[in-house]
Amino acid sequence: AQTVTQSQPEMSVQEAETVTLSCTYDTSESDYYLFWYKQPPSRQMILVIRQEAYKQQNATENRFSVNFQKAAKSFSLKISDSQLGDAAMYFCAYSLYNFNKFYFGSGTKLNVKP
Amino acid sequence: EPEVTQTPSHQVTQMGQEVILRCVPISNHLYFYWYRQILGQKVEFLVSFYNNEISEKSEIFDDQFSVERPDGSNFTLKIRSTKLEDSAMYFCASSEVPLAGGSYNEQFFGPGTRLTVL
Description:
Chain A is mainly β. Chain A contains no helices and twelve strands. In chain A, strand 10 (88-96) and strand 11 (102-104) form a beta hairpin.
C-alpha cells in the first residue's frame, strides 16, 4: 500500500533563511510522481513543485527545490530565502502515472518569522 | 486565472441528513476528484471521475457517497445519510485528461467545504 508520511507537524523559519520540510513515502512501484502542495490559510492548495520518479535530477522552481532520494523513499522540500508569503500548510503527495489516485501526507505548518 | 470553486464554504447538518457539496471545475477540465481531510489528519482520496463515470474510488467511498456531473459544469458529492465521522473538509479538484505515457497534467484544487455533522 502507498503511504506518505510527514513527520513535522509544524516548523518555523526566520525570514530570508532556509528551511527543509521532510517527507517519506512507501510504495512498491517504480514509476510515480511526487508533489509538494502549498495551502495558505483559507486558500486553495496550489502546486509548488513535482518530481518524476524516473528522473535522477532534483526538481527546482525558483526558491523551491527538492532532495529526492528514491532508494530511501525520501522527498524533502527546501525553501531558500524564506518570505512571509511562504507561511502556509505544506502537503507532500504521491501519485501513480495514471493519476487516478493521489496520496497525501498529513501536512507541515510552516511559520515564517519577520 | 481560472480556478475551481466550491459551495458552500461551510455546511452544518444534522446526523442522518443528506448533504450535497458542489464544485465547479475549470471549464476545459475533464477529470474530477474529491478528497476529504478530517481535522488534524491526512488529506484522503475519495473518488476520481472521468467521462461520466467513476474511475477509481477509495474504501471510504461507500454506498453512502455518490458523485454526479448533472449539467456539464457542476460536479457534486452527495452524502445520503451523514454520520458524525463525516465531519471534515472536502476538497474538489480537476485536471485536464492525463496524457499517455505518464505525462502530467496538474490538478487544481478548490478552497474546500467544511462539513460539520451534529
